[in-house]
Amino acid sequence: MRAPTVLLGIDDFNPGVIDEDSDELKRLLKFFREFPKVRATCFCAAKYSYTNDPVRNLAIKNIQKLVNLKVENDSNLLSKNKGWAKKISDIKNISLELHGYTHFNPLLGTCEEFRGIAKDETYKKILDAQAEFASIGIKPKVFAPPGWAMNEHIYSFCSTNHISIANSFYNIKTKKYSGEKINPMKQSVHNRVLCIPRNVDIHNGSTSDIKHIIKNNGLVSFHSHAKNIGVSNGLTEENVGNLRELILWINKNYKPNFKFFREIKRGF
Question: Which of 70, 79, 142, 182 has the least C-beta neighbours within 10 A?
């Protein structure tokens, strides 16, 4: 049996969500000390503006139609947090990748930044995000759509610019997708773009999930968020503990290859 490839993707990894002194970052660094071979791809919205306040988000949705309401949070820009970016980038177990620009759609009042927007706006948002990454010396190679909201223009941009897509999450137990229905077990090509699966949630993922993936010669792709903002798989003590047990089990039973998302190529 082929040695399994193991990925860890962490969404919403922006200084506005997980600062240098946060408990979540401390847990992650402690985890790396125990498992130095694990690689975490941290998807970052360059100007994170989403909140966990549905009332505020609904108000923005309604008011946006009447006034030119400014909703972006400039303080969270990567270019204004170069100290944070350097600290994160200096961690050898972490790779920062694209997770949109603001992670917020003001007309919908949701985190689905790219849902229902035109080509010009889609391209501008991604280019603005790339410019922010360039300001901290990083050229992203992978894009994780905020809120799993894809549109045809994202595929077009990524195809032209040789950027991979981190898929929507697939729940092996329920056989349900969080977004686009793309191969949930292994990398595949969709609309001329390399798509990489996410298939084991660190909150409730189990060894049976991993066995199923490995049996099907797939990628074991752990899915997480930096913090519990509208989700349950943030870097809490419980969730990191579950991830720890799963990594221990994989190391005991296999000889895994831990990789960043950017290291995944077409085919095996």
Answer: 70
Domain ranges for the chain, please list them: 5-263
pTM: 0.93
Q: Residue 190: how many CB atoms within 10 A of its CB?
A: 15
> Which pair of tokens denotes residue 150?
């894809």
Neighbours of 249 (CB within 10 A): 14
Query: pLDDT averaged over consecutive 10-residue blocks of the chain (268 residues)?
Result: 90 94 96 98 94 68 57 86 96 98 87 94 97 97 95 96 95 91 94 97 97 94 94 97 98 97 86
Tokens for 241, please give them.
Answer: 């503990």
Q: At what angle do helices 237-253 and 207-215 cross, to 10 degrees?
A: 40
Cβ contact 199:213 at 8 Å: yes
The DSSP string of 138-203 is: ----EE--GGG---HHHHHHHHHHT-EEEEEEEETTTTEESS----SSS-EEETTEEEEEE-EETT
Q: Are 262 and 164 in contact (CB under 8 A)?
A: yes
Please give the pLDDT value at position 154: 97
The second-level CATH assignment, the architecture, of 5-263 is Alpha-Beta Barrel (3.20)
